[in-house]
Amino acid sequence: MPSQKRENERKEKELKNELKTKRIIWIVLIFVVFALIIMRICEVDFKELKNRFIDENGHLTFSMTTNEDAYPYALSSSSGVKVEPIGDKLSVLNDTTLCVLNPSDAKVVYTFSHGFANPVIKYAGNYFCLIDQGATRLRLDRANKNVFETKTDMPIVCADVAKNGNIVYITREQNGKSHLNVINSTLKKLMSLEINDGYSVYCSIDSSGKKIAYATANSKGADFITTVYTVNLGDDEPRASFEFKNSSLMDLHYATASDLYYISTSGVSVIKNQKRLSETFKEGSVNTVCFNYTKDNELVYVYSKYTSANENKLVYINSSGRVKTEINLKQRPKYISASNEICVLFSDKIVTYSMTKGEAKKTYKCDDSITSANKISTKIFVSRQKLIDVID
Prior knowledge:
Layout (H helix, E strand, L loop, with lengths): L1 H40 L4 H8 L19 E2 L7 E5 L2 E5 L3 E6 L4 E7 L5 E6 L2 E6 L4 E6 L3 E6 L4 E6 L5 E6 L5 E6 L5 E7 L3 E7 L5 E10 L2 E10 L7 E6 L3 E6 L4 E6 L2 E6 L3 E6 L5 E7 L5 E6 L7 E6 L5 E7 L5 E4 L2 E5 L3 E6 L5 E6 L4 E7 L2 E6 L2 E5 L1
Antiparallel strand pairs: 1-32, 2-3, 3-4, 4-5, 6-7, 7-8, 8-9, 10-11, 11-12, 12-13, 14-15, 15-16, 16-17, 18-19, 19-20, 20-21, 22-23, 23-24, 24-25, 26-27, 27-28, 28-29, 30-31, 31-32
């Protein structure tokens, strides 16, 4: 019967599929067993293999082979040098040029002469935004190419960039007021907001390009007031504001889409969800020495109890404002950076510390000519005068 024939054909087809599936499973099992035997013969340490690619914080890392004969790398100028990791590359800004280096061999991936009188740079992901502070030029670049350069109608006070290429910038208008603008990587204007309170001094944008904060400076009676405003992309007015009396702002920085660091010369606070303030170190309680951010945009911060103190504390502060790691330092550091470890530059040495345990890992001797130290993989890249050099 036709129906019986169809049933037999169906069963035959199912049997063939089942045999095919079993064959694939056996091939995979044989491959896995074979690989395990080879690794056993070669005495591969699985834990060590994991540690090569995963750091103590669970981040994917890598081991880099460096051609040390390519260093030191000479810069065009020693003025205004700022060195910063950007992805797996190294960006170097000075008063005339910006270049992106492949750290393994010091080959230039990308470079240009910016011609800015007062260059200020901001990084996010593979983007960096460069402004001529006090003038009208602004540009957006990736690690290997220019995206755009444009001129604004009025002088630029400050700017920041998101991981998607959105840029927030503030201009100073002729009437003394300020204007906040947000544009994307195609120069499309996404937002425009007039700022009426005081003199704008800083702005920040989160990694998604949707949350924004800006700060103004003003005076009320005998007090100098810094006010931070938070606003979401597309809003007509701020969502919240926070006043800091007699506070000198050093940085505003989004750790996440909802957590914003406020760092002054005398304190650290976190603004949560654009509307709630949490003080990690209350204004006036500490003296800020130096700070930087981890790959996840969390804060590493060095402070002392008073300005000239040699005794300092290094703390790792998460995005909620909680101190996760605390390290006592016997000397005053010059510079701090953080990758898979915290790297601290002193006048006579560089010391790396565990991010989570706070223990010292390695110490490298150096002299006082070094101005920055950034660790990429297992290497430390330092700047001194007109040179970029590597320490293993």
